[in-house]
Structure of NAD-reducing hydrogenase HoxS subunit delta:
Amino acid sequence: MRPTTLAVWKFASCDGCQLTLLDCEDELLTIADQVKIATFAEASSEMVGGPYDVSLVEGSITTRHDEQRIQEIREQSKLLVTIGACATAGGVQALRNFADVAEFASVVYAKPAYIDTLATSTPASAHVAVDYQLHGCPIDRGQLLDTLSALLIGRKPRLPAKTVCTECKLRGVTCVVVADGIPCLGPVTHAGCGALCPRHHRGCYGCFGPSAVPQTATLIPLLRRDGMTDGEIDRVFSTFNVASFAAERSKQ
């Protein structure tokens, strides 16, 4: 049987999600004969043209060239999977969406006229159809491996729609809000991290983005009750998935 052709693409990002894939080297060896890595610049200089069975896309769309390139990748890919907060939500760089990018460029760069960038940082799904999304900053290793394995055998990946609160309950983690009054975004955050922060006695920071039906308007009074100021609340929602959380808050 012909091996599945896999391509991995980078847009505006820190490369952390690609490194998560590289860190799976032992597990990937078990499926090496079933996968042909056609393009993965982080790992190899070999670049094989499409079409591709599966494309993994890391990073947000921040330039006109990005807009063109994501369209080309979509056309060449049977399945397109976005990986990480940058690709699924625009990333922390989407803070630019609420400010003046030209002003930022004038402060940061000696010759801002050389900078060709869009005013916004957007997820791939704002430009092309996306088949599956792996949330997180970075993505979860187990979720990535399950998704790749599923796609190899033609099964739909198991991508949970529950919240971090559910993961805490399933793992027997004591609720940091109830027990200690620690502010936590777990009730409004997409599952997938395995309740990493609450397991270490810290509130959830929303790395995996808003859940399917995030009740942020209900959570915010509880965050105030637990000692957060309005400024701190704005900041905690303005990190890895700032654009997604802002969109959800505007609805409520």
In short: The first strand starts at residue 4 and ends at 10. The mean pLDDT is 94. The chain is about 40% helix and 10% strand. Residues 164-250 form one domain.
